[in-house]
Amino acid sequence: MRKPNDITMKDAVSKMLDVYRLRRKFDETSILAVWPEIMGTAIANRTTQIYIHDKKLFIRIESSVIKNELVMVRQGIIQKLNEHAGSEVITEMVFL
Predict the structure, then answer these.
(1) Which of 5, 20, 58, 60 is in Cβ range 3.0-4.6 Å of 49 for a Cys bridge?
(2) Which pTM value belongs to this model?
(3) Does the pLDDT value for residue 2 go beyond 80?
(4) How many Å separate Cα 47 from the centre of its chain?
């Protein structure tokens, strides 16, 4: 039986992230966690370093061929990652 002031767990966690200003870091971490799922195992296995700083996604990839291919589809990747997060978390990709 629900009481009038009950809220769902999803809403409670969302409110907590906003109150403690953890939303941005939570979204960044979720993007890093789904990188292999979104990009596939071939690219994920060749990704040696990935992190986000100031809305820029920094990626170090071993293969220069894959790096060049990713440069060509950079905007599509940014769009997919932001759609997954539900907000604009990444504005630029930098290949190291």
Answers:
(1) 60
(2) 0.83
(3) no
(4) 15
